[in-house]
Amino acid sequence: MKKALILIFIIIVLIISLVFSQRNTNESISKEQSNTVVTTIYPLYYITNAIAGSYIDVKRLIKPGSDLHSFSPTPEDMVTLMNSNLLITLGESMEPWINRIVTATNMNTLTVTDQLDIICLTAEHHHEVGDHHAHKPKSHNKGLDPHVWLNFENASRITEVIRKKLSQLFPKYSSQFQANASALQLKFKKLHQLYKGSLKLCKKDTILVAHDAFAYMEKEYGLHTESIIGVFAHSRPNASKIVKLRNIIKEKNLTYLFYDPLIFNKSASQLAKDMNLTLLPLYTLGNISLDDEKRGEDMMTLINLNFAQLKKGLECP
Question: At 217, which CATH number?
Answer without folding.
Answer: 3.40.50.1980
